[in-house]
Amino acid sequence: MPEGEFEFIARRLRPLATAEGALGLTDDAALLDPRPGHQLVLAKDAMVAGVHFLPDDPPAEIARKLLRVNLSDLAAMGAAPLGYLLALARPSAIADAWLGEFCSGLAADNAEFEIALLGGDTVATPGPLTLSLTALGEVPKGAALLRGGARPGDDLWVSGTLGDAALGLQTLQGKLEVTGEARARLIERYRLPRPRLALGQALRNIATAAIDISDGLLADLGHILEVSGVGAGLDADALPLSPAAQDLPGARDAALSGGDDYELLFTAPPERRADLEALARRLDLPLTRIGEVRAGSDLEVVDARGQRLEPRSKGWQHF
Amino acid sequence: MPEGEFEFIARRLRPLATAEGALGLTDDAALLDPRPGHQLVLAKDAMVAGVHFLPDDPPAEIARKLLRVNLSDLAAMGAAPLGYLLALARPSAIADAWLGEFCSGLAADNAEFEIALLGGDTVATPGPLTLSLTALGEVPKGAALLRGGARPGDDLWVSGTLGDAALGLQTLQGKLEVTGEARARLIERYRLPRPRLALGQALRNIATAAIDISDGLLADLGHILEVSGVGAGLDADALPLSPAAQDLPGARDAALSGGDDYELLFTAPPERRADLEALARRLDLPLTRIGEVRAGSDLEVVDARGQRLEPRSKGWQHF
């Protein structure tokens, strides 16, 4: 017989609710003590089986991805994570063992990010497994990184490497043949984002705007440009590619347009270049300058020789 | 052509996001400024079409019920509401007009409760419409009402009237024939809970434990007794019934076991009776003493003559 809701909460969820304010999940709501001088930062992302994850993805990795995409939103705002609430709409066909592994994934990331489950809700659904997570973080008052602060003359920067997650998904879908270590690395990048929390917090006094790359570099850059009311020039040959990705067909297109990388894209004045190079060394995380913010509203994508690239049916190409 | 996600957010959701910290829904996350000396209170409830609401319920009332069941959780903790985040998993068959009415319901309650949408997520689903809402409130530090504070000798109190929502649902399902004004009132109680926010806040310095009645009086009383480690005696003939409910068959059973009333059940020392009677007059909301907290762990249900009632197949009856 499958676990009932109360048993599921008691056996699986209560051990994740280690924060005092979670009240052992026995109350109607959770309590959270904000620190004086801080603002709360709130992110909420939902995921649906068959839409946002593959049905045979490992349950622990689905849980960790759900948590991490929300933590990535906090990272993009420069916030430090505090905890989260989880809503889980559960079809009857989901086995207790599946949910046990799912909760093990949350437990692993609770330890990794020093956070805890605060509360939530579990309900039955006749539809697919549907997950919604609300992550809470904090930032010193007034220090949050926003999308609207980019100014003409700022450099465009990106963390880590781009395109890996999209290539990993293509690999899982059988659209791309990759073997060995490269295959494992790309799939891991798709399944297990690494929210750039330390970077986001370090950028509070450096970056003028920031976003995490979830929809793809060009789409997310577009969000910064729109909210900031600026344009940009982007050097497609400067995009950082991983050793696993760099020789694959479509790597540059994946870096330009592929989603799910969860790296940070940010803007900063040129006089902060030395600070950012020092920060990259301190965090052991590549930070790459990929273009500049311009007046106007156009986004121009060029190659290393300054030739314009345009979107074509086969990807981004010269005219 | 149905609205895309960005258009839906811009047209329907942005007007609901009137708080400064919502950042016009343009950023990765929302900001919230807790007041000094206060704790945040966080509630999260999910609802699934066909499970938690009837498919032909009016969309505005579905939205308001979703919001209000969460506000009711805040009320039970003694919190004042601040705002909320919404995740909406949308099947393609849901029409834009339906979503427009849904958002109108949120707008009406934003005005009624002086709150605003802070952020959230909208995703596609091949399954039923699935909604998850996270409500945020605040309470002076240390003043939250919890389930665990009931002590032997405390009175058991309940607000408003009980059983109306369950009888309203039976009416909608055709299981109960009610006509005219009574029918309308019972159905309204099922569709549109009234979160007892003013009462919850006033109880901060009076009640020893509190919960909102969502699962039914006996079930929710059971939660208080379990967490507080106490028992209780309950007078089934003292339960407050509305004029619409009092002459209907099964009214007392609905009051004992029916869910969805969203009244507050709370405990308070006998020396606070005069304060609670004054509070009931000030709020123009009946508060009724329905029993007492006892040592031990038994819950005894009696009638006005002290005869014990037991659950039977036809409801609660004498031995």
Low-confidence stretches of chain A: none
Largest sheet of chain A: 6 strands, mixed
Q: Could you estimate the helical fraction of the residues of chain A in percent?
A: 25-40%
Radius of gyration of chain A: 21 Å
| Sheet with most strands: strand arrangement of chain A | 7-9-6-10-8-11
**Overall spatial form of chain A:** globular
SSE string of chain A: HEEHEHEEEHHHEHEHEHEEEE
Looking at the chains present, what oligomeric state does this protein adopt?
A: homodimer
Largest interface, and how many residues on either side?
Answer: A-B, 63 and 63 residues
The number of helices of chain A is 9
**In what range is the share of β-strand residues of chain A?**
25-35%
The end-to-end span of chain A amounts to: 63 Å
Mean pLDDT of chain A: 93
Count of DSSP E strands of chain A?
13
SS-derived structural category of chain A: alpha+beta
Task: Explain the layout of strands and helices.
The structure is a homodimer of 319-residue chains.
Chain A: H1 5-13, E1 30-32, E2 38-48, H2 59-76, E3 80-90, H3 96-113, E4 116-124, E5 130-140, E6 155-159, H4 164-172, H5 180-191, H6 197-202, E7 209-212, H7 217-228, E8 231-235, H8 251-257, E9 264-268, H9 273-283, E10 287-294, E11 299-302, E12 309-312, E13 315-318
Parallel strand pairs in A: 3-4, 8-11
Antiparallel strand pairs in A: 2-5, 3-5, 6-9, 6-10, 7-9, 8-10, 12-13
Helix pairs in contact in A: 2-3, 4-5
